[in-house]
Design the sequence.
């Protein structure tokens, strides 16, 4: 009995812009998830910085990208290895089996608590902006009499 194998495809640049964007988004998410898995399973510290074809930067870091980069550059500030991952650096929504905002705060120092508070505030702002954006799109669609459009699927990170 033969085992079905994935067909290997040649690696070449994707020319169609919509396909390129979808592929980038999926691959970026997968890359960040793998980096997070290495951190959780092996206790490693990692930072990944990826620029989209449009030039937008996406960052993942554990404990934070800044902490990993500082350590790499020899500027280790001695921060705890259990620092909070800022909201803008969360790639796949979960950190160590739960959401980052569910992290226990009892053992956090003042700096970690301040970083956690800042991350929560940034998350709150992003959620509020997203709700406002989606509300505007829905209002515009209802005023124009058009049904849901591709703008409804817009995602701002």
Sequence:
């Amino acid at each position: 009995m033969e085992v079905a194998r994935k067909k290997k495809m040649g690696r070449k640049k994707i020319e169609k812009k919509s396909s390129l964007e979808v592929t980038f988004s999926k691959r970026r998410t997968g890359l960040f998830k793998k980096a997070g898995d290495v951190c959780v399973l092996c206790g490693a510290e990692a930072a990944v910085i990826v620029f989209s074809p449009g030039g937008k930067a996406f960052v993942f870091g554990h404990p934070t990208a800044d902490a990993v980069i500082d350590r790499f550059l020899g500027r280790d500030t001695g921060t705890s290895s259990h620092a909070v991952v800022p909201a803008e650096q969360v790639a796949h929504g979960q950190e160590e089996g739960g959401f980052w905002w569910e992290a226990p705060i009892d053992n956090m120092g003042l700096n970690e608590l301040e970083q956690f508070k800042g991350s929560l505030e940034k998350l709150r702002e992003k959620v509020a902006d997203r709700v406002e954006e989606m509300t505007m799109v829905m209002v515009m669609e209802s005023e124009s009499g058009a049904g849901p459009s591709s703008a409804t699927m817009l995602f701002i990170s």
About this structure: Residues 8 and 14 are 16 Å apart (CA to CA). The radius of gyration is 20 Å. The chain has one domain: 17-153.
